[in-house]
Amino acid sequence: MSANRLPHHLSRSPRRRLARAVAPLAAVLLALPLAACGSDSDDANDEPAQGGEAFEPVTVEHAFGSTEISERPERVVTWGWGTPDAAIALGVTPVAMEALSYGASEDGFMPWQEEAFEEAGDDKPTALTPGESPPFEEILAADPDVILANYSGITEADYEKLTKIAPTVAYPDEPWSTPWRDVITTVGQVLGEADQAEQLLSDIDAQVAAAAEEHPEFAGKTIAAVAIDPSAFYVYRGADPRVQFLEDLGFTLAPSVDELDTEETSFYYTISPEVVDQLTSDVLLSYVPNEEAATTIAEDPTYQVMSQFQEDRVATVVGEAVVSSVSPPTALSLTWGLDAFVDALVPAVEAAVQ
Question: Do the beta carbons of residue 144 and residue 77 sit within 8 Å?
């Protein structure tokens, strides 16, 4: 996985394999036409959906061409990050989705997903075995109407195989770089819920805006967001959705973030221990997987040279799931983790104004 969100720095282990036997994939794929996107029947699009409205066919442009969805999908398979959450939030629980590991349950689901399944009264999706390429036989066995991979790392070869199973929507440009809002709007288009997707985004924005209004002390404070591990000191750039979320809460990206920027990647860069004291800001937000790591970092002499550590202006967000909730945000995760971020930021901001 790409390192443009923190869990990508960590490995993902397989969670559950399909128990039933499936036909050899190669044989089945040879028997299937390419990208057969629904029925050609004129009557199909005239049937009312659950909401009482007919499904309007949609064509989605992406990195590997375009995909036409001519009928409302009922059996949705997702691959990658964020896409299952968008579908779930729009009322469609996938029949299968990639199993996750960082911050996830033993079954491979994030806590906000588990809560959504329970609230909807839906069975959990089949957890697809994670890997560099999708598990094609497992996806075939799920019998999907559509495959959503618009925030993923699939290759063109992967895409060609997936389209032989069902119409597949890939990312618009580069792997692992689709803006989280675009993930939601694209899923909304594919599911025939474009208006609901826009309302979902408005609702998320309203909750973040309400948190900012409740904490006017955040406004104008400079902030730098970092992830520290034994091998590197990661600094997140202004283009990273983690930073954009903090700006939505009222913070301003510290000038030092741009001054030290090596343009190593689109979303983050690394700095050496010799220059960490130059990363100045009113508040330093540090993402750590657990309390043990937080203590180790706080006691490390390497970082005690930073004024934020010296003056207790470090907001430490602890826990793999909470870290994942903005790495990048999803339709379900951003509001799920919002309170934890606010609670971590308040004391650091209070120390900054003393």
Answer: yes
Is 16 a member of any domain?
A: yes
User: Where does a domain end: 161, 192, 223?
Assistant: 192
Give percent above pLDDT 70 in the chain: 85
Give residue 53's pLDDT.
72
* Closest by Cα among 132, 6, 23, 156 to 79: 132
Nearest CA-CA partner of 180 in 119, 266, 242 = 242
* Total tally of structural domains belonging to the chain: 2
pTM: 0.84
Give the 3-state secondary structure of 315-339: EEEECHHHHHCECCECCCHHHHHHH
Domain match, 180 and 286 both: no
Distance CA 287, CA 292 (A): 13
Residues 41 and 121 in one domain: yes
At 68, which amino acid appears?
Answer: E
